[in-house]
Design brief:
Chain A: It is found in: Cytoplasm; Nucleus. Chain A: It comes from Penicillium frequentans. Chain A: This is Exoribonuclease phosphorolytic domain-containing protein. Chain A: InterPro entries: ExoRNase_PH_dom1 (IPR001247), PNPase/RNase_PH_dom_sf (IPR027408), Ribosomal_Su5_D2-typ_SF (IPR020568), RNase_PH (IPR050080). The complex is a heterotrimer of chains A (about 325), B (about 240) and C (about 400). Chain A is of the alpha+beta class and about 325 residues long. Chain A has one domain (about 50-80, about 90-325): GHMP Kinase, N-terminal domain (Ribosomal Protein S5, domain 2). Chain A contains five helices and nine strands, in the order H-E-E-H-E-E-H-E-H-E-E-E-E-H. With about 240 residues, chain B is mainly β. In chain B, strand 4 (about 25-30) and strand 5 (about 35) form a beta hairpin. With about 400 residues, chain C is of the alpha+beta class. Chain C has one domain (about 1-85, about 120-320, about 355-390): Ribosomal Protein S5, domain 2 (2-Layer Sandwich). Chain C contains eleven helices and 13 strands. Chain C has helices spanning about 1-10, 20-30, 90-100, 105-110, 115-120, 140-155, 170-175, 200-215, 275-280, 360-375, 380-385, and strands spanning about 50, 60-65, 70-80, 125-130, 180-190, 215, 240, 260-265, 270-275, 285-295, 300-310, 340, 345-350. Chain C is elongated, with a radius of gyration of 25 Å. Classes of the chains: A alpha+beta (about 325), B mainly beta (about 240), C alpha+beta (about 400). Chains in contact: A-B, A-C, B-C. Chains A and C meet through helix 1, strand 4, helix 3, strand 8 and strand 9 of A and helix 1, helix 3, helix 5, helix 6 and helix 7 of C. Strand 9 (about 270-275) of chain A pairs antiparallel with strand 11 (about 300-310) of chain C, so a sheet runs across the interface.
């Protein structure tokens, strides 16, 4: 009998050639960090209700039945840093993602009969998408995003028109949003805020790709994010957090709570809601009787309406293009 | 409610009220209004004067060149490109058993134009699909992506159903035109060929040559001259 | 594929016929007075049996069994781990603090000083859920674990503005900080002992809550920035979530408590808590709402809301008599007239089931959250009930 050497099996992908197991980050010296202090940090230059511009185009991948590509406008500080680079580290990042829809195609033989369309979603970060490298195997946060996205889309699809068939929706995130400014230590309100922006982008792009694949939908779904942020340095007791739409986490010192919705404007309905964080200390304008979480949801819906205008225009444009060609 | 229709619609766009139109493919009804459910050009099929029905609004899946041809048809409307009951499909035989033949559906033909060359659904290149599917080398490569269907022995022809011998009707690799009779179970649709215009449309002989039909139950090899039994579809 | 499909919507859809679904929906959506299959009131929970501290090998543990036979066990384990500061978690502020304080720095300052020190990291809490019949990387366990972890690490304790030492500044994350170089890592392992008969979220969340309430950490004997060492007397160990003691006058409503996640569904105009499998199958909307005690306002605080895909979207539609070939001629004209369902805006024929489609109106969500949060509402009732379970 052949004796095989004992190989320590690790939880990584054995079908690929992996990089070195340890971190290989260059050393960053304290003096350097001190120079890049508050002055260099990204600041929000938009109004609280002003959204970033979105680039969205459908039908870019010919082999898929539907596809779309979405990009957020880089923040002003990132654009400035690209013009005149002061540091190796970019101050913030901007979302870029590609979405493909394959199908409708028959369900696999093992699957049970379904009178409805079966939607499968995969969300994957490219290994280089975030500051920290992601592996090739989907991790918990990517699976979590996939479930959120599926909930958002399933409410919009008219599934009974496509019996016995399934579609696969795959999103590759090429550049993700940061959870906070890179040089900030995580504070007590820290959470994966960047993921919420990513989800909003995924929803908008996926809706465009599904419409591009001519799958029957009740309405387009657009994703939007709103957050309660406190930007003051030092103690946060002096001013209370304010509501902002389409927040870039790198531009704020602390995000108290955030909310992402998938919203269908024509029906005024929400198919997916994900709210987290402590919204109890928010200060709304006087006379605003809404509670903080309601204001957050309304804010996210407003942001989604903004994304919808881009989504609708992009789709109309692609329809007109196919008619004219 | 506006009476002018937008030239193109996107999902969720309100097209008109159910009082004025009836909803066709590519639309859905919500709160007594017709909304688009896919993106594409809006077409109002004029009402039929005899029946006095409302005109039908639909959003087309295809580009305008073929809209005219399609709207001329007053047949049953289809909502999507999947095989549905009564749709005519072209399929390739993948397995022949005593009681049934297994086929894999290549193309769902538009009801409007049953001539494959004019059919312009999402399978624009029907000709290329058929030739590549009739090629023995290309079998089993994309079967996973195609809908599977069964032709049961009793659905092969309308007469003498009990004398059907499946091996004399279909051979693996033949291209069949069939009509969907049922959505079937989890894995198979059910097809019938029990009509004159349904049956084998393309087949190769044992020698590997493309055959031509000589009768409703025989095809012949032009090179060797040998005949083979088949359930042949009436050629146009 | 099948596992994935089950996972994505709220647990497996029971095989109910369209007629059963329609019956359930109609009785659950009766205005103001829904009739539930098991006779509960809309806000009533299923009876359950709970116990704490059942596993001696853990820092805290709990078991809850529902009357239908589903049981869950949660074990909490804590390990000491060295805090690694990577370049992108460092900033100049924390660097200068570190050099200022030095070894003489008092341990207290670590928890009250800069936000960097109270911080703690969400990844220090690790949660894994095992459900029979699911792989651990299936969508359902991952989704549930993320949902519960997110509310755990997201709950931030009140500021110590009034000078009362509550020991929970910075919430659970802050509590895990030992000093600048060391922290606790918390492993929460959830075991569902039976096949999930209904969406297991309420069961798992309640069990986790109890296990965390009973979790104790050994008493720290070292001071400040020393390498930590602990008192080996288990009797003096401190609760992870500080409890009322004789010395300090605690108002029970002021204590920091682990969050609970409630499963709420809306059917028609009704809001129904702790739904069983049949009830979820006809829900218009399913929300998971996490709440905890607000230490400042003494009310309840909302931590997270997540929508869950209602399985009613995947059900098979019923066929109205007018379209049923077998009933041709047997139906009186006008018997099946579509009526507008005010809750969904869809036209439906009464008594004929149609799979739900579309989303939820904002007013419905607001109503669901309000029933959870309102004073004397379901959220407070649940937290009070869990408090009653004998701990320790």
């Amino acid at each position: 009998m052949l004796k095989l050497p004992l190989i320590k099996l690790e939880m990584n992908d054995r079908r690929r050639i992996n990089g070195p197991p340890g971190g290989t980050r260059p050393a960053v010296f304290a003096s350097h960090l001190e120079s890049s202090s508050a002055a260099d940090r990204a600041r929000r230059e938009r109004q609280p209700t002003e959204l970033r511009k979105i680039f969205l185009k459908t039908g870019l991948i010919p082999s898929a039945s539907g596809s779309s590509y979405l990009e957020f406008q880089p923040s002003a500080s990132l654009a400035a840093a690209r013009e005149t680079p002061k540091s190796l580290i970019p101050p913030s990042s901007a979302l870029k993602l590609a979405c493909t829809v394959h199908g409708p195609k028959p369900l696999p033989r093992s699957a049970a009969f379904s009178p409805n369309l079966v939607l499968t979603t995969h969300v994957k970060y490219a290994p280089f998408a975030a500051r920290k490298r992601k592996g090739h195997i989907r991790d918990a946060s990517e699976r979590d995003l996939g479930v959120h996205l599926e909930t958002a889309l399933r409410g919009a699809i008219i599934a009974e028109r496509w019996p016995k068939s399934g579609i696969d929706l795959t999103i590759t995130i090429l550049e993700a949003e940061d959870d906070r400014w890179w040089a900030d230590a995580p504070d007590s309100h820290d959470a994966s805020w960047g993921m919420m922006n990513v989800l909003a982008g995924c929803i908008t792009a996926a809706s465009a790709a599904i419409a591009d694949a001519h799958i029957d939908c009740l309405d387009l779904v657009a994703g939007g994010v709103a957050a309660l942020v406190s930007d003051d340095s030092g103690d946060s007791s002096t001013t209370s957090p304010r509501l902002m739409l389409d927040t870039d986490p790198a531009e704020h010192r602390s995000i108290m709570s955030a909310c992402v919705v998938a919203y269908m404007p024509a029906r005024d309905e929400i198919t997916e809601l994900w709210l987290k964080g402590d919204s109890s200390k928010a200060a709304l304008e006087n006379g605003d009787a809404r509670s903080a979480h309601e204001a957050l949801i309304d804010g996210a819906v407003d942001a989604a309406r903004g994304a919808y205008s881009v989504l609708g225009d992009a789709l109309r444009e692609s329809v007109l293009q196919t008619i004219q060609s | 409610m506006t009476t002018t229709l937008p030239p193109v619609a996107i999902p969720g766009q309100c097209l008109g009220s159910v009082a004025m139109y009836s909803a066709g493919p590519g639309t859905h009804i919500q709160q007594s209004n017709i909304y688009a459910s896919i993106a594409g050009p809006v077409v109002a099929d004029p009402a039929q004067p005899k029946t006095g029905t409302k005109s039908t609004l639909r959003v087309s899946r295809v580009v305008p060149a073929t809209i005219r041809a399609a709207s001329a048809a007053n047949q049953k409307q289809r909502y999507n490109t999947l095989p549905a009951v009564d749709s005519i499909v072209l399929a390739r035989v993948t397995r022949v058993q005593k009681r049934q033949a297994t086929v894999s559906i290549l193309v769902v033909l538009d009801d409007a134009s049953q001539d494959p060359s004019q059919n312009a659904s999402d399978n624009d290149n029907v000709a290329s699909i058929l030739t590549s599917a009739a090629n023995p080398e290309n079998h089993n490569s994309t079967d996973e992506l195609r809908f599977q269907a069964l032709i049961r022995k009793e659905d092969v022809r309308a007469v003498e159903k009990d004398r059907v011998v499946m091996e004399d009707m279909f051979r693996v690799g033949d291209i069949v035109r069939g009509s969907v009779i049922s959505q079937g179970d989890q894995s198979f649709y059910y097809l019938t060929t029990a009509r004159n215009d349904l049956g084998i449309v393309m087949a190769r002989s044992d020698a590997g040559n493309m055959m031509f039909p000589v009768s409703w139950k025989e095809m012949r090899d032009p090179v060797t001259g040998a005949g083979e039994p088949r359930k042949v579809a009436r050629p146009y | 594929m099948t596992a994935q499909r089950q996972a994505s919507s709220a647990a497996q859809t029971p095989h109910l016929s369209a007629a059963e679904l329609s019956y359930l929906y109609t009785s659950l959506s009766l205005p103001n007075n829904p009739i539930r299959p098991d006779g509960r009131s809309p806000t009533q929970f299923r009876p359950l049996a709970a116990e704490c501290d059942i596993l001696p090998g853990t820092n805290g543990s709990a078991r809850i069994g529902f009357a239908d036979g589903t049981q869950a066990i949660v074990g909490v384990k804590a390990e000491v781990e060295k805090t690694t500061l990577t370049a992108d978690t460092l900033d100049a502020r924390s660097l200068s603090l570190q050099s200022d304080l030095g070894p003489s720095g008092d341990g207290r300052e670590g928890t009250e000083g800069s936000s960097a020190a109270t911080g703690g990291h969400g990844s220090w809490v690790q949660m894994s859920i095992e459900i029979p019949g699911f792989r651990d990387d299936d969508a359902l366990p991952v989704f549930l674990a993320e949902m519960m972890r997110e509310s755990l690490v997201g709950s931030v304790g009140g500021k110590d503005g009034d000078g009362i030492e509550r020991g929970m500044a910075g919430g659970l994350k802050g509590r895990l900080v030992i000093n600048k170089r060391w922290h606790w890592r918390l492993y929460i392992d959830v075991l569902l002992l039976s096949q999930p008969l209904s969406y297991p979220l309420p069961l798992l969340s309640l069990t986790t809550h109890l296990a965390l309430l009973s979790t104790k950490l050994p008493k720290l004997k070292s001071q400040g920035e020393e390498d930590p060492f602990f008192d080996d007397d288990w009797a003096v160990a401190e609760y992870l979530y500080p409890r009322a003691s004789a010395g300090l006058k605690f108002n029970p409503s002021q204590q920091v408590r682990p969050p609970v996640t409630l499963l709420v569904i809306s059917v028609g105009e009704n809001v129904i808590f702790d739904p069983n499998r049949e009830e979820i199958a006809v829900a218009d909307a399913v929300l998971a709402i996490s709440v905890t005690r607000d230490t400042e306002s003494q009310g309840l605080k909302l931590l997270t809301i997540r929508t869950i895909d209602p399985p009613s979207r995947l059900t098979q539609p019923g066929v109205p008599n007018s379209e049923n070939v077998n009933m041709l001629g047997a139906t009186a004209p006008g018997e099946s007239v579509a009526v507008l369902n005010p809750a969904t805006g869809e036209e439906e024929i009464p008594g004929v089931w149609r799979p739900r489609r579309g989303g939820v109106k904002r007013s419905v969500i607001a109503g669901m959250v309000k029933t959870v949060l309102k004073k004397g509402g379901v959220g407070e009732e649940v937290l009070a009930g869990l408090e009653g379970v004998q701990v320790g």
